[in-house]
Design goal:
Elements lengths: L6 E4 L11 H10 L2 E6 L11 H10 L8 E8 L5 H8 L9 E6 L2 E7 L7 E3 L4 E7 L2 E7 L2 E7 L4 E4 L5 E4 L5 E7 L7 E6 L14 E7 L4 H13 L2 H4 L27
Antiparallel strand pairs: 1-3, 2-3, 4-5, 5-12, 6-13, 7-10, 7-12, 8-9, 8-11, 13-14
């Protein structure tokens, strides 16, 4: 059932709310992105405006009553005030991705914090848009076979083309926004780990892929977490087939310079 369909809930003179989808309860309750109105027949006992109110109402009613239906129709949600959202919900930005999805329909809009600890390069068949609200981030990319770092500073935006291997490096006390397209049904996301010991530059050099995980993206945060955990705990997947070295599952301490601690030129 879509967030945007009309939904009916069983009730009597008191309201009883059963949120049909956990996604609605968990996602929209934090983002405040869904607005509802309620009525019973020709009566209008009141309105329930936000999903948190619906959840609170459901929790207050026990045992479950029976009776006529309340029909809830979906309306456009209010704007999200980003500073206020961060004040109330920054604890939701958890490793390894530190992201939280506030919209998830035709476009996925994520708030992303730091620090993170990833060595994988994500490959998305659709574009990704980056914006830094607070502080700078580093986007490691493989650009036409060349490994390079793109610094996205506070106030900067950047559109990453599709199929570009990228490793978003985020630092403490930074906040960014990322917008992605909903994945087509036949699209495949990849997470790729390269060997840091084998030469990546110079005559005849070519980056060596140690391991690659592939999946259809439905929940990026949990799927990346699962793939990183699997790579971390499997020496066979971490071992380079060319040089025999074990690839790091997280960056070595001090191996990446924080651009927020370096004066911009």
């Amino acid at each position: 059932m879509s967030d945007f369909e009309q939904v009916s809930f069983v009730a009597n003179d008191e309201w009883i709310i059963d949120l049909v989808e956990q996604r609605v309860a968990l996602g929209s309750s934090q983002a405040g992105s869904t607005l509802h109105s309620a009525s019973i027949g020709n009566r209008n006992p009141g309105s329930v405006q936000t999903v948190p109110q619906l959840i609170a109402l459901r929790m207050s009613l026990s045992p479950r009553p029976t009776g006529p239906y309340i029909t809830l129709t979906n309306m456009l949600g209010p704007p999200i005030n980003l500073p206020k959202w961060l004040d109330e919900n920054s604890h939701l930005l958890q490793p390894p991705v530190n992201n939280y999805c506030v919209y998830n329909e035709d476009f996925t809009v994520m708030i992303v914090g730091g620090p993170n600890a990833r060595t994988d390069y994500h490959i998305n068949q659709t574009p990704e848009w980056f914006y830094q609200h607070r502080g700078a981030m580093m986007l490691k990319v493989v650009d036409d076979g060349i490994f390079r770092d793109i610094i996205i500073r506070q106030g900067d935006m950047f559109l990453l083309p599709p199929n570009t291997p990228h490793n978003p490096v985020r630092f403490a006390n930074t906040i960014g926004l990322v917008i992605e397209q909903r994945r087509p049904a036949d699209s495949i996301d990849r997470m790729r780990w390269y060997c840091a010991s084998c030469p990546r530059a110079g005559p005849g050099a070519e980056a060596v892929i140690v391991h690659e995980a592939a999946f259809h993206c439905t929940d990026l945060g949990s799927q990346i977490k699962s793939a990183v955990k699997d790579f971390k705990n499997n020496d066979e997947k971490r071992r380079c087939g060319k040089c025999g070295e074990l690839a790091d599952w997280a960056p070595k301490p001090g191996s990446i310079q924080d651009p927020n601690l370096v004066a911009s030129t």
